[in-house]
Amino acid sequence: MARRKITIRQLEVLDAVGREGSVTAAASALHLTQPAVSMQLRQMEEHLQLSLFEPVGRGLQITEPGRDLAALAADLLLRLDDFALAASELRGVSRGRVRLGVVSTAKYFAPRLLAQFLKSHPGVDFKLNVYNREHIIEQLQSYAIDLGIMGRPPEGANLVGTPFAPNPLAIVAAPSHPLSLRNELTPEDLENEAFIVRESGSGTRIAMDRYFADAAVTINPIMETDSNETIKQAIMAGIGIGLLSLHTVRLEQAVGRLVTLRVAGLPLRRQWFVVHSRQRHLTPAAEEFLEYLLREADELMRAGL
């Protein structure tokens, strides 16, 4: 069968060409000569009896079947990595790899959690990336990451989300804002205020919209952004107020650049969730990190607020 003739090197070459976009760039990424890459591609086409590339000018362009198989090659290589890691990790979790994706709000506390974990697991290799919620779900479903951290668990049977720590949301303002002097505020008191808000679809925006809808209050959003940093800077500049996770404003509150407004029903008591695929067996290192989050993250994060 063709599969017995396909080598790991050929899978690596196909993956690299699909990822880099050209034979020349793939050869550079793999530290191979261009003729060597071209030879591997020709051999693969012969084995598969399928055209993966077509000539365009003096170069080669990947075909539609080539793109499909390049995506499968990338998945196979990840699975081979997992195979090798699982074999080495059978001796324990002193070594191994964890691929973690977190939403942008979680980047304010995730490094502290990783630092504490790595003190007792110094041999574990972490890959941490910040994505939006939808991309984390895609990465989990394609097995590109082991675990995801987000504020709203996904729906569906393929992914499972487990709460591990609190995620309080509150209205924050600059210390000079007139409302910062008020001890008791209601949602109605905020109706005419200028709001800087997160983008539609984000967990923070959904929670904010639900809170004001329940209070039958319509707010005045004057700026929308997908960046917590932009919201904080706009609030500190006096442009308006906004709803943010208290994890994102810890440092600004400590130095007196932002304050939390005392509004009835706030802070909203939400949770952080760690998410993984039901259909994929976690490596020992990823399983250990998951158990660590469920065991210790709550106390560590409460101490940081």
State the gist of this model.
The chain is of the alpha/beta class and 305 residues long. It has helices at 8-20, 23-30, 34-48, 64-89, 110-120, 133-141, 203-214, 228-236, 250-254, 284-304, and strands at 53-56, 59-62, 96-102, 124-130, 147-150, 159-173, 194-198, 220-225, 242-245, 259-260, 268-277. Helix 1 crosses helix 2, helix 1 crosses helix 3 (34-48) and helix 1 (8-20) crosses helix 4.
Short key terms for the protein model shown above:
alpha/beta; two-stranded antiparallel ribbon; 7-stranded mixed beta sheet; 305 residues
Tell me about this structure:
α1 (8-20) packs across α4 and α2 (23-30) crosses α3 (34-48). The model has no long low-confidence stretch (mean pLDDT 89). The protein has 305 residues and is of the alpha/beta class. It has helices spanning 8-20, 23-30, 34-48, 64-89, 110-120, 133-141, 203-214, 228-236, 250-254, 284-304, and strands at 53-56, 59-62, 96-102, 124-130, 147-150, 159-173, 194-198, 220-225, 242-245, 259-260, 268-277. The strands form 3 sheets. Strands 3, 4, 5, 6, 9, 10 and 11 form a 7-stranded mixed β-sheet that branches. A two-stranded antiparallel sheet has the order 1-2. The chain has a two-stranded parallel sheet with strand order 7-8. It starts with 7 loop residues before the first helix and ends with a helix.
